[in-house]
Structures are given as C-alpha cells and as structure tokens.
Amino acid sequence: MKEPNSTKQHYQQLRVLSCEELWDTEVAAFDRADARERMKNVAVVRAVGVVFSESGTPEQKERARRWLVGLLSDPEEKIRRYATNALPKLGSDSSEEAALHDVLRRSASDREKNALARALGKIGGAATLEIAGEGVLGAAAQKVRANVARAQPSSVALDRVLQKTAGLRIRLGCRAGLERIVEDELHEKSQEGARFEAIDSSRGAVTIAPAGDFSLADLFEFRCFSTLSFVLGSIPSPQESSESIARIIASSLTLRILTAFTEGPIRYRLEFVSKGHQRAAVREIANRAHELCPQLLNDSREAPWQIDIIHHPRSISVELSPRLRPDPRFAYRRRDVPAASHPPLAACMARLAGSMDNEVVWDPFCGSGLELVETVLRGHTHHAIGTDLSAEAVAITGENFASAISGPIRTTFAAGDFRDWSTVESLRPRSVSLVITNPPLGRRVPIPDLHLLIEDLFAAAADVLKPGGRLVFVNPLTVKPAGRALQLEFRQKIDLGGFNCHLEKYRRI
Fold first, then answer.
1. How far apart are CA 501 and CA 347, in angstroms?
2. Domain spanning 330-508: which superfamily?
3. How far out from the chain centre does Cα 22 lie?
4. Which of 19, 65, 226, 233 is the most buried if burial means most Cβ atoms within 10 Å?
C-alpha cells in the first residue's frame, strides 16, 4: 500500500504511542471527525492495527478488532481498505472473515478487492475457499488453502519408506573440517548393511545416494551430520528465474519425497539462504509452484518441511529438508548450558576417539554431558566421569545422561576444578582410558588465561590416562603438550561458526 508522505509521517508519529494514548486521544478524535478529517487522519487506522497487535492486552485487542470491523462499513473506500489491511494483525475468527466477504461482494474497486484478497489470504478459512472458484482471491488462494490445511495434523514421518529413486542425492551438512568423520561413519554403517553410499564431498557437506528403499529413520541412524537435505535440482546462475525454480519445486521428485515422508497435508516453508527475506520472490515462486502442483502448499507457520534456494558461485541449488524439533537423534537433551557443545560435533568426537573394552571415560568440562553420552552410546563404556566448575552443569549432565542411557553404566559426576582431579572418586593416575572434552573456548565464557587452561588440560590428561589411552578435545589455541607422554594422532581444523579451532586426538605412550 503506497501512502502519501504526509500519511506516512503521521503514522510514524502515531506508531510510538501507547495503546491507551492511541485509543483515548487519536481514535476518539477520529470517531468524532467529519468525513474530510477522517480521510486526512487515515493513518490512525493503520497505527491501531500495528500498536495493538504488538502491545495490547487481549481485551484491548478485542476492542480494536471490533472497531476495525466497524470501519469495513465506512462509505470511504480508502478507510475500508486501511481497516482491511490492519485487521489480520489482530487475529480473527469467523465473524471477521464473514465481514470481509461482505465487503468483497459489494466492492467495485480493484484496489480494494486486492486488499481484501490479501487479508483473506492471512485469515481466511474454509468459507473463503468456497468463493475461491470465482477467481477473486488470485494468488492468495494458496495461503487460504494453507490456513485450512494447518488445522489438520501434518508431520514428518520418520518410519515411512521411499522406494528406490534413481538419481536421488542427499546432502549431509556438517561443520567444515568434519567431512572425513561423516564419511567414516557412512562407510562403517554401509559395512553393517546401511543403504547409502558417499558420492561426493565438499566443504561442509557430504553428498550421498541411496542404494535402495529407505526411510528417514535410516538416515537419522547417522549421528555426525548437522543438517540433512534432499537435492531437488540445480540451475546455472545465469539461467536463474522464478519459473525454473518453481518447476523444480513442483517436480515429480519433490512430490514423491514429500508424499512418502509426510503425514497429513504437504506444507513447506520456502527460504532464500543468505539473501534475506526476498518476500516478493518467495511469493512469486510459491504461487507458481502451487499452480503447477496444487498438492504443495507454501506456509511460513509451523510447516514440517523447508525448501531452501541456495546460491553457489556458479549455480543455484534447490534443497528440501525436514524440520524436526527436536532432532530425534538428540532428543535426550533435557536441559542445556551456555556455550554447550554442538551435538553432532560431540558425536564426531566420540567417533574419532574409537573405543576400548571396559572404557573409563572422563570429561573434565562436562557442560551438558553430550560428549559423555555420545561416547557411551557407541558401546564398551564401563565408567563415565564428568566434572565441571558449575554445579548446575554437573546436574544437567546427570539429567541428560539418565535420559539417554539405560543400563549398568557406572557414573561419577562432581562439581570442581579439573586440576583437582585427584579429589574425585575413581580418578587416579593411569586409571582412565579416554579423556574427551570440549573445553571453554574463550568466546561466550570468558577465560582469564586460556593458554594456561589448555596446558593444564594436557598435564591432567597425561597423569590420568593409562598407556594407550586417548585424549580427544577441541583446541582453540596452538598449544601443544609438554614432554612426550602424549603423542598426536589426529589434527583437523574445524569451523565452529565463524572461528576456527582444531579437533585433536592424542595417545598416551
């Protein structure tokens, strides 16, 4: 809605008022004014929709909603149109929908009809769909269908099976630097009968192909990846167009995947990655995809799937991802701590560590316990020990561990400085087979002397590890262990979200 500068300026002045000030002064004056003054002060209508939606109490919102519905009968088209645009911000029920239908039937203005169609696209339901056949809703028809579909349960079905699909590619995203560990997990699972093979690896991603039928549950047996997406198609950058992207989204491949893995109506959220909201482009692409494949409904609210448009240097890829919250692999997390480990990173660390029979594992900075849990889930652990300066973190580790692990695993969780390890039950010289930890990195948790902390970690590990024992940790510095007791076996730079550290593995000789 393009407004004159004077109306915009007036709106900006009204926008900062409280609900009480706006209602008692501006709305009251608007209601008393003659037709000419009301048109001059039409910004009041817009301000009511915004201010009351953001800060009004339920009672205030209801009062404002009734006022806006009343304005739908105003003799001035501009005032009706402003009320039409403001009304969806305050929510709606069937009475508001019916009032908009009434105006739509009476309106002779294309501009007003367009505003009504946009409003009904936001709040319309089954009753609005009955008039969609008249063509008055236009592009808003898809939004109305999404509103109706949202009332029905819709979810990602983990256990349903997609039959073998030639040429299907699945991208497993990970922290840059962890690709080899993701591939190692894939190779190990394939030897155990998993149905996937790696076909390509690039920075931050491993692309795999299914060898036959599979379910999403099969994919979520892998613990080391961070994100999962189905590659729907790609376009060379110079040939980018809304039409070509819409055709990829509406393809038989997309529909086949979504039909197989969705319970209920198929709803997805369309996003441009790293290019901002791009609302106009999203609307154009989604509407065209819906024309081509009416089963697909773009819905920004609680959709179980997301389609991302990702710009690469020479191409654009269109990828489909399940929106699973929480991630079914890490649903054991009951609580978290500030600066907690990224769960797939913890899984990668546990995989890198390997395992020994009757493993005794110590995490000196246990945080929320993810490294301990992921290590125990791999098997062979006899005793898990977690320490942390924070008593709350130790309690959270205990909760998460109990949620994840059932079985005769001995545990010791204690609050205290890792340097005082000799005061902790079961921590004795040469008593531990694995030290695995993600120490404070000095980013979100300030460390007075991070260099000294890493040196002391090396010293503690050298003392408690038995010969052949391993130290696996994320090293934020270039500090190396003193002496020759710890021998480096693995060192890989990894991206932890804008800064680099090294994932390292040492063995006690």
1. 17
2. Vaccinia Virus protein VP39 (3.40.50.150)
3. 37
4. 65
